[in-house]
Amino acid sequence: MVESKHPWKAWIYLAPAIVLLLIFTVWPIVNTLRMAFLENYNIMAATVPGVTFNVGLGNFQQVIQYGGFLTCLGNTMLICFLTVPISTFLALIIAVCLNAIRPLQRMLQTIFFLPYVTNSIAIGMVFAAMFNMIGNNFGGEGELLITAGIINNIIGIFGVEPINWINVGSSYAANVFVMVVYIVWNALPFKILILLGGLQSVNKQYYDAAKVDGTSRVRTFWRITVPLLSPMIAYVVITGFIGGFKEYSSIVGIFGEDMGPTGDPRRLNTMVGFIYDALANHQGRASAAALILFGIIFVVTMINLWVSKKKTHY
Amino acid sequence: MKVELKNLTKIFPSRSKKAGEEVVAVNDFTFTIPDGKLIGLLGPSGCGKSTTLYMISGLQKPSGGQIFFGEEDVTDLSAEHRGVGLVFQNYALYPHMTVKQNIMFPLQNLKGADKLPKEEMIERAHQAAKLVQIDNLMDRKPSELSGGQQQRVAIARALVKMPKVLLLDEPLSNLDARLRLQTREEIRRIQKETGITTIFVTHDQEEAMSISDMIVVMKLGVVQQIGKPQEVYDDPINLFVAKFLGTPPINVFNGTVKGGKLYIGDAAVLDVPGVEDQDVTVGIRPEGFIPDKKGALVCNLSNIEVMGRDVSVVSTHEASLSPAIRSIIDADDMPAPGATVSYSLKPHKVFLFGREDEKRIYFEVK
Amino acid sequence: MTAQNITMQEKDMSRVHARQRVMKIAVQVGLYAFLGIMALIVIFPFYFMLISSVKSMDEYRQTVQTLWPRDIILHNYVDAFKTANLGTLFLNTMYVGVVSTILSLVITVLSAFAFARLEFKGRDAMFAALLATMMIPGELFTITNYATISAFEWKNTYTVLIVPFLVSVFYIYLLRQNFLQIPNELYLAAKVDGTSDLKYLWKVMIPLSLPTLISITILKMMGAWNSYVWPRLVANDEAHRMITNGLRNAFTDSTGDVNIPVQMAAVALVSTPLFLVFIFLRKYIMKGVSRSGIKG
């Protein structure tokens, strides 16, 4: 570092960043806190002279009592607790297998990374088409099924009856299944990249030592690979949870902005979706929900850090 | 367990796709390691000694030749079935396990009839820890141990499954000088106590000479000489081996043999009966010089270093192939200070080598 | 301790040999089979998109779908281009992407330089405060920013798509770390020679941290290409619409009986630039991603 003769010079370099951050980052933090605790706050109403809002927890109460919120919270939790373990475990297995082969390794690595460089709305539409049925198949008499969709075609090979995945009248479980499949598919590349990077930096001698000692592959995986990779696993789990709590556009991709199958909108809405719904007209409620989301993310991250500190021993 | 290597060869394919650029890491190595001995594989880096060790362990597959443990051919057997203990250069202790867990790890791998009850595993781990004197550190993590202690844990982990053969890859290279002396005695002691055939790899000739029953000197994948340390030192088979062994290193001169006499420069320094007239390279061990006013080898004296019992005399000579000649002589025979020093030579400390092929040329020592 | 052999009995050596070889081959076959199947699952959606995008409506609507199109109808792509008005969307998105990337790079470089090389009061405290904001979910900012840009009357302009996201604390952090790795002696030498800060920045720091800058550029461009939520809120008019919004809007109903082949053609068109970037700049993307963990 150099003791500058003109300390103000640094501030000139920082000026554009600081101005923008003050407007679009610092002020929003302050303002969100303010709006969250002003009951029924609404920007339009606030511009009317003489209108005041009570300070209190009313917005939070409203959020929690609001019927849709529990659905959103439930969906978000379900996404997190289904997709994070599934995608982490799958990514770990794929990374370990990739690390164990020589020929074709680079090619397969590239293929597994492909879903990362996609537009989640666009590919969500592809997933929707794959699971989509054309026709109206409510299971009644004389109804017409034109095409059951490629996924139903494929499971049909194994003798499974076509399932109504995402169309009118589809079950919640089927919707969640499609959603989980898509989110896991989307989450795999990043996790594989990180875990494979971790594996490749593990000293090969640990594996040589295990081999000389006659350690089975399964035991090597659980007793050596997983513990040595635990910092990376913790990292992908934490980022996975954060991403899961902020999930929104994957569902828009599949189900559209209604966040649910036709005839049952908002069935698959998430926390972030809830915030956006309230954003235009109920800023107080949206702010309270955003703070709740932040609180949940913060707590879950802390729990994860605490657990991983206990589990990553070195 | 006797270990026998027959025509062992390892060829690494070239990295580039051009043919014919393959590297022969080990070439046609044949040797029988007697049961219960400590063998040092010695050579400069890249000589194939570690590759040999890894082939014995089963981690690398030979390109040709065979390996026998006792009478049994283990060439195609993979590492886990060979029952060897291997100590890695950087120990490869599992960082997330305690010392005890590290040592017990190989035992927990045993399956079927070999499976041990838990108490016995703990008992065996304690025995192994006691043998290497770390039984008071059992609950520490590797990161909480010094380099020497980690080394001992690694040895204990290799010994706990009672291996047929113990392999050590540069076991002392990560330790500081004082620990190195101490640990090599320790390795010797442990090997004697267990009687396990032990092979270790090193680039440090002093280390190999001091504790091995036999040493194998290698260069560029080819075994140069095998024998007891003192024998190899006293009777090197070629210039490479002569230069590689001994501290201070051997002094090398250009010389000529004419009429049964060895000339260095213009002076006839030694009778070498039975050697044909030719140009040779002469190696003289530091302890092969006798200060002698009438001595034929006259060198320019640069410095005399007193080292207690012995004196190291540093001098130069125009025929010398190294910048300085270093001789070790008894303090009582210290030459008088002056511009030159004259030596006569101990014939059994003088070795002749062909100028071209660097092979030893023998002469009769009276 | 005795050197007795406990891991391996001398008998049935040959059986061990044979079993060992079989096991080894079986494991390799298993690995490739597993990875192959997973790879197929991973690329299947892309394959489905491509084959569906060239099918006729009739073929697509067969009871059992074909895995290879009978007739390749490239006209779907023309229809897709027209239906979704992709031309305008491409241009809008490119404009926003390029302008915001350039401005963002300038701001990031200047700030990272100040944090890495200049001495001023409160530097470390301020940097820590910036890092702390990274923990807050972006949605929390959106609510107020929506109000702010409404007050500025920026709705339905390019400005609103560019300005609010010009500063990324994460990019500043990334670049600062990179700058710190450049030996300070170089800076001192430049000072002694009377080189100005800006010239030093331009001539030394930027060339030395080019890989990071390229990573940032790619991530920023991909961000513009994939942005959806913010543009939908603030600039969803015909003139300023971004590509992802345009795609979603043109095919509002993703299920039911819509012209899926044309829809798939549109999706393929939108995805292609991303794949091209990926193919040519794979190294930088993977490096940037492994350090960031954020998408776009």
Describe the structure concisely for a colleague.
Chain A has 314 residues and is mainly α. In chain A, 69% of the residues lie in helices and 2% in strands. In chain B, helix 2 (99-108) crosses helix 3, helix 2 packs parallel to helix 4 (147-159) and helix 3 (118-131) packs across helix 4 (147-159).
Descriptive notes:
The complex is a heterotrimer of chains A (314), B (366) and C (296). Chain A is built from 13 helices and 2 strands; from the N terminus they run H-H-H-H-H-H-E-E-H-H-H-H-H-H-H. Chain A has helices at residues 8-37, 43-47, 58-65, 67-99, 105-113, 120-131, 150-157, 172-201, 204-212, 217-245, 249-255, 271-279, 283-311; strands at 134-135, 145-147. Chain A has a domain at 59-132 and 167-311: MetI-like fold (Orthogonal Bundle). In chain A, helix 4 crosses helix 12. With 366 residues, chain B is an alpha+beta fold. Chain B folds into 2 domains: 3-243, P-loop containing nucleotide triphosphate hydrolases (Rossmann fold, 3-Layer(aba) Sandwich); 248-361, no CATH class. Chain B is 23% helix and 34% strand. In chain B, the strands form 4 sheets. In chain B, strands 6-7-8-3-9-10 form a 6-stranded mixed beta sheet, with helices on both faces. In chain B, strands 13-12-11-14-20-21 form a 6-stranded antiparallel beta sheet. In chain B, helix 3 crosses helix 4 (147-159). By secondary structure, chain C is mostly helical. Chain C has 2 domains: 16-60; 84-250, MetI-like (MetI-like fold, Orthogonal Bundle). Helix content of chain C is 72%, strand content 0%. Chain C contains 14 helices and no strands. In chain C, helix 4 (86-117) crosses helix 8. The longest helix of chain C has 41 residues, at 13-53.
